[in-house]
Structures are given as C-alpha cells and as structure tokens.
Amino acid sequence: MQIELINQSKDKISLFVKDTNSTFVNTLRRTIISEVPILAIEDVSFIKNSSVLYDEMLAHRLGLVPLTTDLKSYNLKEDCKCEGRGCAQCQTTISLEAKGPGTVYSELLKAKDPAIKPAFDKIPLVKLTKNQALEIEATAILGKGKQHYKFTPGLAWYFGYPEFSASGKSNLNVISEKCQALEVKGNKVSLKDITKWTESQEQVCEENGVTVNLSKTDFIFNLESFGSLSCKEILLEALKIMDNKLDDFEKQLKKLK
Ligand SMILES: [Zn+2]
C-alpha cells in the first residue's frame, strides 16, 4: 500500500491510497464514523430556561456542539476505573449562563476542565429577548458514533481513482466546458485536478460518450473533521482501534484448541 497526501487544511485531509482494496478503505471509514470516540454533552440540568425553546430542544442542540477532545485525558465510561459512576477521568461539567436580549452562542459554554471548549465559538444555540434568561449545567462524556451521531468525529468518504476512455462519438467540447477536473487533448480525456473531481462530472462524462472506470485498487480517501480532533488524530485513533480488534481476534484464536 502507498499513501500520498493530496490536500490538507485545518479540518480536511485528502489522501491517495494506492494498491489496496475497498474492504480496507471502507473499514477505515466505518471505524472513523462509528468507533473513534469524542466528547459531547450527554446530560443537561436546566436551572433557568425562559427562552422560546423547550428544554429538550436546547439539550439536543447542546449535544451537537463539537467539543475539543483530549483522548489521553478521558476514558470511555464503561472502561473507567469508576465503573461508570462518573469521575474526572470520564466526564466533565460544562455550565452556561446568559441573559437576553441577544443570541446565545456556543462560546458561552464553560467547562470545568480548561482543555475542553467548543470547537467553534459562534454556533447559535438560542435567541433571547429582553427579560429571558438561560442557566444550565451539563455533563460531557466520551462516546462513540455508533451510540449517537453527536459522538462522530467527522465525515469520511472515498471513491475509486477515475480513468477515462473516449470513443469517436464522444462529445468532448461539452466535457472540456463542464468538467473542471478534466483536461481534453485531441480525443483524449485525462485528469487535471483530482481535488475538483465530483460525481456530477462523472455523469456528464457518461452522458457525452466518455466511459469512466473507477479503480478497484486505488482510492481517494477524504476526511473532514467536525472540530473535536484533528484529521490526523482521527485517522491514527481509527487505525489503533482496527489494530486492537485484530490483536483481540488473534489472542482469542490462539486460545482455541
Ligand atoms: Zn470514571
């Protein structure tokens, strides 16, 4: 297997993964979205809420605010020494106090652990008018995407590297006009910029007589973090989880007689 970096920004990474198969890249994708843990608000106590939103709606919105996560400092509740009762190693308290008029943004969420804060400051939670107020105390815990989507660290997707074959009947003018990712020279279509390649361009190709073959061994793997962890942290944690599962399988297999 070979990996090349195509693109990297603060919360997005694109990798060219060669000489592998869809089973591997899909396992990586599924591990990211359902197994890599992050912190999210789980329980909310409302001390005051005179806003127009019901407690339940606000609690739901609070749960979806991405929180910066330090995986080394927190355990999953089920793996914690406290046996799920809740301690400083598996949960943190977050409070919020606001008075109207004005919009309440995520930046007002203050965690007991100074390392934990909203990944984005300006996520609107609710609008308060004059004399309305909000006071809450919440608990954030580490969880996995397979329990609730709020614990999913990011969006991961992949596609096979495209190759093109044009025939005499291909309408290449339309393709060079509509497909930014492609280059047309004579009657040959080739990829100019993979970062601009989209599924809609694949459709344009097919409609205009150019066959697109997606590789079964070379893939473009994309990951967009929701802000709790960096893309590299997400990928490394996912690989660690895959590795641990294989170790566990090996251990159990060796025990069999
Ligand atoms: Zn604990």
Mind explaining what this structure looks like?
By secondary structure, the chain is of the alpha+beta class. The chain has 2 domains: 2-34 and 154-224, RNA polymerase, RBP11-like subunit (Gyrase A, domain 2); 38-151, DNA-directed RNA polymerase, insert domain (RNA Polymerase Alpha Subunit, Chain A, domain 2, Beta Complex), CATH 2.170.120. It is 25% helix and 37% strand. It contains 5 helices and 12 strands. The protein has helices spanning 22-35, 55-63, 172-178, 199-207, 231-255, and strands at 2-9, 12-18, 38-49, 91-99, 102-105, 110-111, 124-128, 133-143, 154-166, 182-185, 188-191, 210-225. The strands form 4 sheets. It has a 4-stranded antiparallel sheet. It has a 4-stranded antiparallel sheet with strand order 3-8-4-6, with helices on one face. A two-stranded antiparallel sheet has the order 5-7. A hairpin with a 2-residue loop joins strand 1 (2-9) and strand 2 (12-18). It is flat. Zinc ion binds at residues 80, 82, 86-87, 89-90.
